Amino acid sequence: MPEDREVTIYDIARYLNVSAATVSRGLKDNPTISKSTRKKIAEAAKSLGYQSNTFASSLRSKHTHTLGVLVPRLNSHFMSSALAGMENAANRHGYNLIIAQSLEDVEKEKRNAATMFNKRVDGLLISLSSNTQDIRHLEPFFKRKIPVVFFDRVYAHDESTSVGINNYEAAYNMTQHLIAQGCRRIMHLGGNLLRNVYQERFNGYRKALQEHRLPCTEKLHLTSTLSEQAGADAAKYILDMAPADRPDAVFSANDTAAVYCMIALKAAGLRIPEDIAFAGFNNDPISRVIEPNLTTMDYSGDSIGNTAATYLINHLKGISNLYTTNAITLRADMVVRASSERNKLPG
């Protein structure tokens, strides 16, 4: 047989002097084929260099047992935890994942979505980039009835569902905590308000301030990428303010910006929480490394990823219907640490 020709089940059948149907069933570990014959078939396949043509098989079955996953960025503790949860669920049910990141760019998100569609994924799990304004690039999935599940950064759509937390309630509770600690000028470091998570966190923050008749002004709301640099820039912004106008607390929509803002303010001589209290969001490992440890909101990326993937797979298997539940809300818990505990300060 020519070296560049692909080995087929017919080659294995001739090699073992059995039928091609027997080889096909043996390679699928069908119990109707004896264990000894299955072993011989597996050994012959390995010896001859046989590779299963999963693409041809998927064309016949119309299923690839592959899920597409689009995330804003991979270098995020939350996203890596969510991917671990998805991988766990996919492995349990015999599915593979194709993972891509948008790097917070909608154009890259569109290209990645087209690639997933062309690779014939059975379903799509997606957390939107910060500047995605609509989801027209997902219409091919909806038209072909390929199920789509949004997670964390979601977009309402009648033919999909979303998995996340109650960001409004979590932010409201965190702001209430800071108010209870005696804070009266609370700054919010937020993300792009196009995204539900940042809009809802801002709304929860604003509602708590309004209830206590505390200032909620443009000067006290910074919108950024919530990166390390954004945290440092926020610190410079605070230091450039007149001392009387500075916030006495900062509530950041993620831990990264909070921590790097804290580092810069501490380097400038401000005391935390005496001069300015801090609270973040996500309970990233960095929140337990900074001194003082950062008060934050804990919600499990692993649980969100596992839930989203399991729900999608159950829909594909006909166990549940994706379209009967538009949103799945998981719990979030406040983790109070020293960065905000002004009431415990001596005197």
Describe, in plain words, how this protein is organized in 3D:
Helices cover 41% and strands 15% of the residues. It is α/β, with parallel strands linked by helices and 347 residues long. Strands 2-1-3-4-5-11 form a 6-stranded parallel sheet, with helices on both faces. A 4-stranded parallel sheet has the order 7-6-8-9, with helices on both faces. Strands 10-12 form a two-stranded antiparallel ribbon. The longest helix has 16 residues, at 77-92. The model has no long low-confidence stretch (mean pLDDT 92).
Structural topology:
Elements lengths: L8 H8 L3 H8 L7 H14 L5 H8 L4 E6 L5 H16 L3 E6 L4 H13 L4 E4 L12 H5 L4 E4 L8 E6 L1 H14 L5 E5 L5 H16 L9 E3 L4 H12 L9 E4 L2 H13 L9 E3 L16 E3 L2 H16 L10 E4 L2 E3 L12
Helix pairs in contact: 1-2, 1-3, 5-12, 8-9, 10-11
Question: What features would you highlight for this structure?
Answer:
347 residues; alpha/beta; 434 Repressor (Amino-terminal Domain); Rossmann fold; six-stranded parallel sheet; four-stranded parallel sheet; 12 helices; 12 strands; 15% strand; elongated
Describe the main β-sheet briefly.
6 strands, parallel
Class computed from helices, strands and strand pairing: alpha/beta
Helix content: 40-55%
Per CATH, the superfamily of the largest domain is Response regulator
Average pLDDT number = 92
CATH topology of the largest domain: Rossmann fold
SSE string: HHHHEHEHEHEEHEHEHEHEEHEE
**Count of spatially separate domains:** 3
Report, as a whole number of angstroms, the end-to-end distance: 88 Å
Shape: elongated
Number of separate strands: 12
Number of helix segments?
A: 12
Which spans of ≥5 residues are poorly predicted at pLDDT below 50? Answer: none
So what's the CATH class of the largest domain?
Alpha Beta
The radius of gyration over CA amounts to 26 Å
Tell me the β content: 5-15%
